[in-house]
Design goal:
single chain, 752 residues, alpha/beta, 8% strand, DNA-binding, 34% helix
Length: 752
Amino acid sequence: MALSPDDEDYDTSQSRASARLKPRPAPSSGPKLLVHKSTSGARRRRTRCRKCEACLRSECGECHFCKDMKKFGGPGRMKQSCIKRQCIAPVLPHTAVCKICGEAGKEDNVVDEAEKFNASLMECSICNEILHPGCLKVEESEGLINDELPNCWECPKCNQEGKTGKKRGPGFKFASNLPGSLLKEFKEGEDGGRRKSEDLGRPKMEEYHPNRRKSDDGLGLKRRKEKDLPMDMGPRKKLRGGKDDKLQKRKEEDVTQATVKEKKRKTSPNSEESNKVNHLERSEHAERIERIRQMMKRVNRNEATSSSSSSNSDSDSSSGSESSLQRSAGSSGGSSPRSIVKGDNQRSKLRRLSNDIFSEEDDEEEDEDEENARNTKTNSLLASKDRENNYYGLRGENIQKNSFRTVEVSLKKKNGPSSQLCHKVLGGLPRPQILSKLPVQSPPKPFQMERHVVRPPPDSPEPDSLPLDSGSEHVMQREVWLAIFRYLSHKDLCICMRVCKTWSKWCCDKRLWTTINLSGCRSITPTMLSGIIRRQPTMLDLSWTNISKKQLSWLINKLQNLKILALAGCIWSAISALCTASCPLLRMLDLSWVVDLKDSQMRELLSPPTDCRVGQNHNQSKLWNLTEFHLAGLDITDLSLGLMTRHMPMLNKLDLRQCTNVTDQSIALLTAAGSSTRETLTEINLSGCHRITDQCLLLLKHCPNLTQIELQDCKLITAQACQQLVEGLAAVAPFELSKEKILKRRSLQLTK
DNA sequence: ATCAACGTTTAT
DNA sequence: ATAAACGTTGAT
């Protein structure tokens, strides 16, 4: 009788259909009341988050509900989503507004996490009212946050009245119990199937009020701090054990209590009272604040699907956790602030699932990487010796030792084409700090990057030394480690990042990432973009990638220190991001072989912006400061060259290889009296420009600063003319003719 | 307007 | 208690 999606006997048209067909008594004919029985609030139907793993799947075509669908030949009566597509974190509809102020979620407009919470829309699972917590006048009582659903809580009113939650919270789906539902897996994962029957059907709540907390400090458990972190890097499984689980719960409550106290203190700033706060509490002050922040974050529906994550250290409160790898390796212990939320495992799982969204096409690779980090037993990077030890049971120095072995092993593994390597490396980059910016209410936008804020890395990632378990510090300071890290490849740096939180930060030091090369990566994913931004390279190679306009635009605007950018082989629609994005320090740009980049596009690119924004010199092109421009293989003509002479007054090096429409006239423009390029040009590559003739050599003679002219494969250029040019230039500087038709100024190096 | 599917109601 | 049905919402 069970609903069996895989049941081959399923027959919609006969046996079951006969059970109940259209002719249905219509007691509820007419529009259904939206009002919930026990309350006043009109229920807003939740909708897909469209970001979770389930939402991103396609219909399986095999489950019960798929078979019902007309598209799969069914009658279409059930009107249910594919079981594999049951959304894990259904969100409030866009149109939802605060009952009090009538406005949508506004957490986008605030920075502070606590404020974000107050500005987000929260739906009460009891009375169904949706409102901004901040719009509530008095805090007679605290709300009880339901961590299971985004933007869901028991509002202070209902909470105080002692109403019990509904059996089925908002977003409940009976179908979630069906086999194959990710939502089901997800739920089971949360409590390990050991949830008490009395709790069943009730969403898990994050205790938020002192009166409701279960007293428990009894064990006197103290949360671990950052320095103990390596201890916490044990495999997730550990936590699932009954004992550990209990321990964890206790800790959760411990932390909750702390949080609540903190909150209480905040609301009633009685100086005397705060003076009474004992020393221990004081020392945990920052932690508590952090906990509140984490809680707020969690409230945000995007928290469930963004890779923003909690961290469990004081020192980390500013940077958050930057790495899902790190997170998975480092926060599985009970000391994670997330442990204040029941069902942490589930949370993690959810996060993990959701993270896949960011990885897009590199899911598999990322999953693999994450899995490696997550499960030390299967971590192929660990030497077998290490595997015999309880790797994560080791502390401090041992961790470091082992991690070095890890690196050594990985170094031996280096192979494969660099592009793929790069892809893997960045694909596996630890998650950068990503905070949701989307208001609870606004619809998921098609492009995800706009929703994320990636904090730039600090100049020198804290801390200065590795804290040891003993409380002392490791003798080697950060700068020493960094000196060592400099010898590692980017891939190996990524591996090192998994060792511990501190290494994770240090390995992100932008000094280690001045150049990032992703050329040839089949897919640039948001994860990679975030990883790039965290590292703030000055040189970035995205040639021959499928980067999109929005991605590029987002990226450039966040890489204000970028000096060199290579976008060869990308599509014009992406390149056009340069028309609007600002990159003031950009000196070198490679747009070779950009499909559809012709004169009109070049005009767009080089024209000064029409809208004069603050800080933007409205007469100048965005590429005004460019000194090196690579335009190989473009179908551009004199028009573009003319533009360049007007809008690129610093141009030194110009690469026009294989620009078959470049003519003598083009060269004439570059070398004309009064043209800036005439003075600035030092290197010009005209190889393969088969329309230029010996005439242009005479023109180039006018450029006093030229040090290199490349003319290979220029059929109309004769060797004699080249020789004559060398002789003609001799008066200015000693030139030589190296190889075939390459003129170089003597005593100066060839650049390529 | 169309489509997907949420969440309640009804049948079993 | 569970499966099926379906009115209606929400997104496009």
